[in-house]
């Protein structure tokens, strides 16, 4: 596990270019109108490329004060991991000359190893199985991260749903039945949906807990 220390908020004139990140990351950031980053954001995004000796990403702790741009990093890192996974699955399927199958359904088949028919995005009889989960103790932060992540995923035909208290449960259920690729939410609302078999974490490949030092 690695601990990444980021500095606090920077002045509006202290920005780093996104150049130097992966070509995919630079393209996405430019597409949504983010040509520059806070130095703290750049440090955190650069750290996401660290891999363990077996080639797999390992756990990281991000230590950053309020205003360091951490929310954007959590959302963007989730997006990057999701898209990398989908691209890898698509390439594997193509090299094996398999019939066209959506990347999400193919990865679900590999993970579940079940002979039953692959679940569809709108199959309301099954619990939602997102690929990424971000847990936030504060409603406002969850909404902020969820909105940004949904914007990123929407560029590639994917989606994110935000689950927080104060919103009618029926609204959540409708969103979960569309099988979003990512879920952002507060602990209480997430647990409620899991307890009622509307949400399962069996296919998660990215998980982040925001402000874990303040969570009980």
Quaternary assembly = single chain
Structural class: alpha/beta
Question: How are strands sequenced across the largest beta sheet?
Answer: 6-7-5-8
- Radius of gyration over all CA atoms, rounded: 18 Å
By DSSP, the count of extended strands is 8
Which percent band covers the strand fraction? 5-15%
**Can you give the mean pLDDT?**
76
Largest sheet: 4 strands, parallel
Report the uncertain regions. Answer: 9-13, 97-120
Helix content: 40-55%
User: Could you state the order of secondary-structure elements as H and E?
Assistant: EEHEHEHHEHEHEHE
What best-fitting shape do the alpha-carbon axes yield? globular
Describe the structure.
The protein has 216 residues and is an alpha/beta fold. The protein is built from seven helices and eight strands; from the N terminus they run ββαβαβααβαβαβαβ. Strands 6-7-5-8 form a four-stranded parallel sheet, sandwiched between helices. A two-stranded parallel sheet has the order 1-4. Helix 2 (39-47) packs parallel to helix 3 (70-95), helix 3 packs across helix 4 (103-112) and helix 3 runs parallel beside helix 5.
């Amino acid at each position: 596990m690695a601990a990444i220390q980021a500095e606090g908020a920077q002045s509006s004139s202290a920005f780093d270019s996104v150049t130097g990140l992966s070509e995919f990351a630079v393209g996405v950031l430019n597409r949504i109108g983010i040509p520059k980053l806070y130095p703290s954001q750049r440090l955190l995004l650069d750290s996401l490329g660290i891999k363990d000796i077996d080639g797999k990403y390992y756990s990281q702790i991000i230590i950053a004060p309020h205003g360091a741009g951490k929310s954007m990093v959590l959302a963007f890192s989730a997006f990057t991991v999701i898209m990398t996974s989908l691209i890898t699955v698509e390439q594997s399927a193509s090299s094996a000359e398999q019939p066209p199958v959506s990347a999400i359904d193919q990865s679900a088949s590999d993970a579940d190893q079940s002979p039953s028919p692959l679940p569809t995005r709108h199959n309301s009889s099954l619990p939602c199985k997102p690929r990424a989960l971000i847990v936030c103790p504060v409603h406002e932060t969850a909404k902020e991260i969820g909105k940004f992540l949904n914007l990123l995923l929407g560029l590639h035909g994917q989606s994110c749903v935000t689950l927080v208290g104060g919103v009618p449960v029926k609204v959540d259920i409708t969103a979960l039945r569309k099988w979003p690729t990512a879920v952002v939410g507060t602990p209480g609302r997430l647990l409620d949906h899991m307890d009622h078999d509307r949400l399962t974490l069996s296919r998660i490949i990215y998980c982040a807990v925001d402000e874990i030092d303040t969570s009980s």
